[in-house]
């Protein structure tokens, strides 16, 4: 099978290996005349690369190459004369090797690489996923920063993702939840956050009761109250996202999610209260023995924004490591404009190391939830006032 590369000499090829033991999975980048060929062979323990009959490198051994659930990637970068290969999401943190072509007078490697315009692969051994236009070049920032706040130092250091660099879908979601009035405590209910905290900590109230009910949500055999959180939805499911597109997630002290992915959707996440610890993983593995580790972690605080794309930041675990404060986030999801499959589940790793589908449903609508918290809080204040009167009398 052959596919045209959009920009000659640069791309990322995302693929998986098919379950075969008789043929070595192979793909190649070629010029228009097939004079120059960059050939890649993916063997069980290594990746071998040949450039026009010249062996140029041997990849670092990796046990995960043979994991049939793992997405693999290969980055072709003619401008910087570099080749990367990796496992999981296509980024520097997941690469297993880098090769930089030498600057030599007798051979113009840059010109040779720039001549490569076709990808050819064996359909019997390789499952094509996607061709991405731009190669892997530098670490990708997790935090979003608005254009009005972005500095020259921010761009130079690569610490923040400019909102303008995200897709039009993500920019739309960001604008919907980034306003100064998009907050929890409002004039009509200035104690909303305190009311939620009170409901979580008080037996018999709604949040506390719902968390108890959800203790078997991710493992029916082993109830775990800490592996729970509350999903409060804003609006309706319009078919353009996995579940309702706007979700307020409530993470009590010490609570966490399983490692999970996000159905290939795009997302923008804002912290409305507290702090959440995020662990990013390269992919979900069917094989628990692979013991996949997070490649990056970040602590997001109030009014921090982060993002998810169909190929980046897809797989993570969220943990509220605070000992005193509930974390509340707003998460906005939408499918990419080119997504026609619309997978509606968040896959996660259960307690036995197996991948399971999770339907991102709603625990309660936001309007009803806010009114219920108001009622519980009013009753609490009334009870406290009655108790104070008893002490006076």
UniProtKB/TrEMBL annotation:
Quote the InterPro entries the UniProt record gives. Answer: RmlC-like_jellyroll (IPR014710), RmlC_Cupin_sf (IPR011051)
Source organism of this protein record = viral metagenome
Q: Which SUPFAM superfamilies match?
A: RmlC-like cupins
Name of this protein = Cysteine dioxygenase
């Amino acid at each position: 099978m052959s596919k045209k590369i959009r920009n000659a000499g640069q791309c990322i090829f995302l693929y998986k290996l098919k379950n075969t033991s008789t043929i070595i999975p192979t793909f190649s980048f070629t010029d228009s005349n097939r004079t120059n060929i960059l050939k890649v062979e993916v063997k069980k323990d290594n990746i071998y690369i040949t450039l026009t009959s010249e062996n140029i490198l041997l990849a670092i051994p990796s046990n995960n190459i043979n994991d049939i659930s793992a997405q693999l990637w290969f980055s072709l970068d003619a401008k910087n004369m570099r080749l990367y290969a990796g496992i999981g999401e296509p980024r520097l943190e997941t690469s297993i090797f880098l090769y930089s072509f030498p600057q030599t007078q007798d051979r113009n490697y840059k010109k040779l690489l720039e001549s490569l315009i076709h990808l050819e692969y064996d359909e019997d051994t390789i499952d094509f996923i996607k061709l991405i236009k731009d190669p892997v070049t530098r670490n990708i920032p997790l935090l979003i920063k608005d254009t009005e706040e972005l500095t020259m130092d921010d761009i130079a250091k690569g610490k923040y993702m400019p909102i303008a660099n995200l897709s039009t879908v993500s920019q739309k979601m960001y604008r919907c939840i980034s306003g100064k009035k998009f907050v929890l405590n409002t004039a009509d209910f200035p104690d909303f956050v305190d009311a939620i905290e009170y409901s979580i900590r008080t037996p018999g109230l709604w949040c506390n009761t719902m968390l108890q009910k959800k203790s078997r949500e991710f493992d029916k055999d082993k109830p775990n109250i800490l592996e729970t959180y509350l999903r409060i939805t804003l609006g309706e499911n319009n078919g353009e996202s996995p579940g309702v597109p706007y979700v307020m997630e409530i993470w009590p002290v010490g609570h966490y999610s399983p490692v999970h992915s996000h159905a290939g959707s795009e997302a923008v996440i804002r912290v409305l209260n507290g702090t959440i610890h995020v662990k990013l993983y390269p992919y979900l593995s069917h094989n628990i023995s692979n013991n996949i580790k997070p490649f990056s972690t970040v602590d997001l605080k109030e009014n921090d924004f982060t993002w998810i794309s169909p190929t980046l930041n897809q797989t993570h675990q969220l943990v509220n490591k605070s000992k005193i404060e509930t974390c509340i986030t707003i998460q906005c999801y939408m499918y990419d404009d080119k997504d026609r499959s619309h997978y509606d589940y968040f896959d996660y790793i259960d307690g036995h190391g197996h991948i399971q589908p999770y339907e991102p449903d709603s625990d309660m609508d936001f309007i009803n939830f806010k009114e219920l918290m108001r009622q519980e809080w009013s009753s609490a204040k009334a009870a406290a006032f009655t108790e104070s009167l008893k002490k006076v009398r």
